[in-house]
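A further point concerns the way the authors explain their paired sequence and structure data. Since the whole study asks how a given chain folds, the encoding of that fold should be made plain. A single example would do more here than another paragraph of explanation. An entry of this sort, consisting of the sequence and the corresponding backbone structure tokens, reads as follows:

_____
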Amino acid sequence: MSEVRLGENDRSLGALFGDLGRELGTLVRQELNLAKTEMTQKAARAGKHAGMLVAGGAIAYAGLLAIVAAAILLLARSMPAWGAALLVGLVVAGLGGAVAYAGLNGLKREDPVPRETMETLKEDARWVQAQTRQRG
């Protein structure tokens, strides 16, 4: 009797599906790692913008406490104290509001959806379908 050797292309259907399952598991793990990395990057950028928003509020508050007092004392020499306080307070609050607005706009521009991961998952699904058609 002669011995029958199976070539690389003659593997059993079970072996092929076993390979596909292992490859698919590896692929899913890699995609999850990609999603985690992408979300970490997006969170870092959002954190930066949130920090700008908080910094804008802190600047406005610090300005309200320090500059307002000095400016009020200076302006109170030529106008009523309440008018000096109002004028200086509006200017400082406007500056702080502008910084906070810039931070808020930055947060609005951030896209929290992991777009790259979604695209590669779609590609992976097409690959799995193609592999299944070829082997089925």
